[in-house]
Write a structure and sequence with these properties.
Layout lengths: L9 E6 L6 H17 L3 E6 L4 H8 L3 E4 L10 H9 L8 H8 L1 H11 L7 E4 H6 L7 E5 L9 E3 L20 E6 L4 E10 L2 E4 L3 E5 L6 H5 L4 E4 L6 H17 L4 E10 L4 E8 L9 H8 L4 H16 L8
Parallel strand pairs: 1-2, 1-3
Antiparallel strand pairs: 4-7, 5-6, 5-7, 8-9, 8-10, 8-12, 10-11, 12-13
Helix pairs in contact: 1-10
Subcellular location: Cytoplasm
GO molecular function: ATP binding; D-alanine-D-alanine ligase activity; metal ion binding
Main location: cytoplasm
């Protein structure tokens, strides 16, 4: 990829947004905007709301850096707005963003491509709240959320299902994903969608200090410890990298993604849980940490993401939807 003089670019960084992951996005967006300013770009920080189209029309940026996380910003909706405005933007297009965010549809595509995914399926949330829909241990989670928001682990021997899923305060949709609980290590693999094909960087073993890798473990101070590279058998290490690359391709992703896995070393089972099309870019985030391990500092990674988006746009983004 040729070097792009960022001093010639006016970049709008989208941050905040409307989802339950707003606070994380504010941190990711600030980090990326700061990096772009250090690189010499003219940066407009846009707290993305329902008036996003009007704001961007007035700003007239050369390129949009999408640092939103979760629903609306990461599920194809904002990507559709950017396509309509004919603005080049970072990360994946409409279809892969929508696919990856919908856990049930993503699992179907990934399984067909040869990626090992958990069993289970979609259930009505009230049915899940009334009685066990599968024998514990199992996991209940929203079908279209990230950052471990709204996730319940029902342990072996549990007497009751997660009643909270059926409450009036539940805001994550009428259908929830229920999957068998996979014991073992939490692994992550960041992938760069290079012109020669997707390239996995390395494998991180995430050791949670909160019992499991929940929201607090992901973003709280000292919430987790990252073992990089993961201390796992070399064959499993390479399989995780190849499966992450395969998942990136199968969903049609571009730019940077992160695949999350569970590895049960006792049963020697490795399953891919989900693909994140806009991984966190916070000080504790996994993808920047893996990029640094591979010799690409934070500013270099941000520059690569922008250059990738610009290269794919020509003078106007080649749509991926």
């Amino acid at each position: 990829m040729s070097s792009l003089p960022l001093s010639h670019l006016h970049v709008a960084v989208l941050l905040g947004g409307l989802s339950s992951e707003r606070d994380v996005s504010l941190v990711s967006g600030k980090s990326c905007a700061d990096a772009l300013e250090r690189l010499g770009a003219k940066v407009a920080r846009v707290d993305a709301g329902r008036d996003l189209a009007q704001v961007l029309t007035a700003l007239k940026p050369d390129l949009v850096f999408n640092a939103l996380h979760g629903a609306w910003g990461e599920d194809g909706c904002v990507q559709g707005i950017l396509e309509t405005l004919q603005l080049p933007y970072t990360h994946s297009g409409v279809l892969p963003s929508a696919l990856a965010m919908d856990k049930a549809k993503a699992k179907a595509v990934l399984k067909a491509a040869g990626v090992t995914v958990p069993g289970g399926g979609l259930y009505n949330r009230h049915e899940v709240a009334r009685d066990h829909v599968m024998a514990p241990p199992y996991v209940v989670k929203p079908n279209a959320e990230g950052s471990s928001v709204g996730v319940f682990i029902i342990r072996e021997g549990a007497n009751r299902p997660p009643a909270e899923v059926g409450s009036d305060s539940w805001t994550f949709g009428e259908e929830v994903m229920v999957e068998p609980y996979i014991a073992g290590q939490e692994l992550a693999v960041a992938v760069l969608g290079e012109s020669s094909g997707p390239r996995a960087l390395t494998v991180t073993d995430i050791v949670s200090n909160t019992g499991w890798y929940d929201y607090e473990a992901k973003y709280g101070e000292n919430g987790s410890r990252h073992v990089l590279p993961a201390d796992i058998p070399s064959t499993v290490f390479e399989i995780a990298k190849r499966q992450a690359e395969l998942a990136h391709s199968a969903l049609g992703c571009q730019s940077l993604t992160r695949s999350d896995f569970r590895y049960d070393k006792i049963k020697d089972v490795l399953v891919l849980l989900e693909v994140n099309t806009q991984p966190g870019m916070t000080p504790t985030s996994l993808a920047p940490e893996q990029a640094a391990y591979a010799g690409m500092g934070f500013d270099d990674l941000v520059k690569w993401i922008v250059e990738d988006a610009y290269a794919r746009s020509g003078t106007g983004r080649k749509t991926t939807s």
